[in-house]
Amino acid sequence: MSDDPQIATRRDVIQKLGAGTTATLLVGTASAQVRAQAGGEQEEIVIARGGLDDEPRSTERVPATWKRHEDALDQLQNVLGPRFVEKQDFVNGLRITRSNDSIDEYNLSKLEFQVSPSASERQVSSLPRSLPTAKTKVNLDLPSMVENNVQVQEISVKRDAERVGSTIVQDQGIFANRDTIECGKLTDEWFCGGWLLNTPKSFATAGYRVRDTNKNKDMMMTANHILTTDCEVKDNVKVHDHNGNHVGTSTSQGHKGVDWTLLESSDNFNWSNQIDRGYPDGLDSIDGWVTKEGAQSINSRGDDVHRFGVGSGHSQGPIKGLGESNYESCQNFYLNAVTTGASVANHDSGGPHWFENSDGTFIFGQQSLGTGDGPQVQTCSSSGEDAFATSWFYPFFRIKQDNPHLRIAGLEYNG
Question: What is the pTM of this model?
């Protein structure tokens, strides 16, 4: 990967960390002070929405104390982020992750600082390890909602030296003379999430279908960085399938920093509302999208998030962090990305992440980055290469906040 000269950021320290062994140190993990008790008041939350009216598609009842804690912790992250992530060069992020404390079957989340591998012990020791310490160190005036509802007072610190990279490589000839049917699940008739895209930059993975209600058209959501080398969101970039057939064209809708873009289908291709779950599971219809509350629940329960890409196929794993930060060339995540334990490899960029439960299959986001040394996998471009252990994506529910005209609907609309 090459650095983007148009993006000036103080976070060069986490770029190009190389492919060395991951080194992780947990610091200051004092016992959490949990005031919550099992049982008590329940609250219904919406896990997923879908359809042309964004109606609830999946709900569940959760402990009200747990929900208040999760919402308060989210506020606390947004209070502490500007004080540390923005002002301290050695602090790379402040994420929300699972703690070992729970109410009923719901684990409570906690905050975790992520620090540069080059951070000194003096710098690391300057970070607050608990909510009371944070208030003392930076003289915080916290909202009463935070003061009264944060149950896990601990703030952990993780020193992380991870391999960082885009999950796309610039090599136009990489699939030459190779049968990609088993890897890419290719088709000439319709286009579902997880299937191959041939872009001017490289081979990548189709995302998922959305409905633009302003244009009254089907669009495909995928990663912006798969289209161009200069990081900009560009319209009129043509995308093809493995046979060179024109299947779609980029639009001006997108964001280079959080890495999403919309493609408009060509006259000869209609986007499918299905995603590839990989052989032998086959295809699955999309029923909607995961909400922010859904993300909190999935994280709390340790449920798996799935992904599929033409490079390495299907993988799944639990959420590692909510509100993640990372600065890798064009991508500029600040307290807004999701990371999971689903391994990922080259050419998987743009592919769908989703969550499954008894109510259906719900889109979570589109593949963007990979970090950490993962297992060796066979990909469409190699008989064996090191995968990234952690997948990164910008969740669809955040895209919806600024683009309420976008919908994910299954059979409610057609082509």
Answer: 0.85
